[in-house]
Amino acid sequence: MNSEDEIKEKPPRAGKLQGLIIRSATPADADGLTALVNLPGCRYGTLRLPFQTSAETRQRLETLGPGGKEILAEYDGQIIGSLFLGPMLGRRRHVASLGMAVHDDYTGKGVGSALMRAALDVADNWLGLRRVELTVFVDNTSAIRLYEKNGFVTEGHLRQFAFRDGKYVDAYTMARLKA
């Protein structure tokens, strides 16, 4: 058998974490959440700036806005994931925006899926939302797959959406509509 005939196998998928806790954030979580969002890989996929302080995080947690939910994934006493669900007001009160971050060492282990399940449960069954929307960098293929798996569809391509790592990068705007 020559190299062209060899079967290429996908590496085994990382195992899911046993004992993952999904819970609401409190201002007391500011230090752990700050450590998460300051990780290079985590920050790379978000709009956060480097060197966020615990004081900035605490202030954000204290002022989430009406109906805003910060949901955390905790494993072995460490915050390894975060998802913010921010309902809109007025004529867009049927809509929420979503932003998520997962620890660099825990991607591909079901953390994002667990956070998404919790957030969509809140959106569908507690807030009565019809639309959840987000933006995602076009090169964040694992996040895009997660969003698509949860019913999100791409609605637009935002050119030069944000400045990251010394250059402008594009993003997709995605949304999930509940019938």
Q: Can you characterise this structure?
A:
This protein is of the alpha+beta class and 179 residues long. The protein has a domain at 21-134: Gcn5-related N-acetyltransferase (GNAT) (Aminopeptidase, 3-Layer(aba) Sandwich). It is 26% helix and 33% strand. Strands 1-2-3-4-5-7-6 form a seven-stranded mixed β-sheet, with helices on both faces. The longest helix has 15 residues, at 111-125. Residues 1-13 have low confidence and may be disordered. It holds the Pfam family Acetyltransf_1.
Q: Topology of this protein?
A:
Elements lengths: L20 E4 L5 H8 L2 H5 L9 H9 L6 E7 L2 E10 L7 E8 L8 H15 L5 E7 L3 H9 L3 E12 L2 E11 L2
Parallel strand pairs: 4-5
Antiparallel strand pairs: 1-2, 2-3, 3-4, 5-7, 6-7
Helix pairs in contact: 1-3
